[in-house]
Amino acid sequence: MSLGSRLRTLLGPRLARRVGRAYRAIFVDLECQARSLSSVLPTGAHVLDVGGGDGEPLNYLLDLRTDLRVSSIDPSDAIGQWIEVRHADRVTCLAGMTLEAYLGSGCPDPDAVLIADVLHHILPAQREQFMASLGKLIERRPATRIVVKDVEPGTLRSLLGYWSDRYVTGDRQVSLVSRAELLRLFESLPGKLSHQEAPLYAEDSPNYVMVFYR
Q1: What are phi and psi of 173, to 5 degrees?
Q2: Starting from the edge strand earliest in sequence, which strands make up the sheet with 69-74, in order?
Q3: Residues of the chain below pLDDT 70
Q4: pLDDT score recorded for residue 65
């Protein structure tokens, strides 16, 4: 069990959430992040939230965008425990599910895929397989938008986040993904994709949001 998991158990659900909010704020402004994500998601979209985790960041996005529906997936058994009740009817949580499994499940293809703070937890050697799954989705539904939120390495704040992932979250294999590296990853997909960067990096560096589309 990671240090973070032990602390959540010790604190209990209510206090753990309050402490978690304060701790997360060290690394990212969730209101700012939600504004950036909102600016690049299509109207009325069905969003596939890959690696949804506790769902806390979704609350900020869904407060801004009452038109969105979300399918949140995560390979772990715990997912969506902090999604607010007011949003529950717009969020479907699918525990124990990877992107590849979702695409083969017969579930509806999404209008947009949200990959928030996920890529840096995927081992570099395994990113090719993850990107191949995205490529399959884009091939069968070319209008899909891929929205990536991640952290640019090279600053004190990103280093603190890296240490947090290693020693609090317990992911000793974490490897930050720069915007330049992200572009290289997406160049590996079939067909030429356009991209644009949302304003998050200028407002809450080193966090960034980039969107890829045909």
Answers
A1: -105, 10
A2: 91-95, 69-74, 46-50, 112-116, 145-151, 207-213, 194-197
A3: 1-17, 19-20
A4: 98
**Please, what is the angle between helix 13-25 and helix 56-64, to 10°?**
70
Q: Tell me how far CA of residue 32 lies from CA of 13, 43, 145, 157, 212, in angstroms.
A: 25, 19, 20, 16, 20
d(CA 146, CA 141): 12
pTM: 0.93
- pLDDT value of residue 23: 75
Q: Give CATH superfamily name and number for 28-213.
A: Vaccinia Virus protein VP39 (3.40.50.150)
Mean pLDDT of the chain, nearest integer? 92
Q: Which one, of 162, 191, 186, lies nearest residue 175 by Cα?
A: 162
Q: For 8-14, which contacts have Cβ atoms below 8 Å and span 24 or more sequence positions?
A: 13/81
pLDDT of residue 2: 56
Whose tokens are 């994709």? That residue is 193
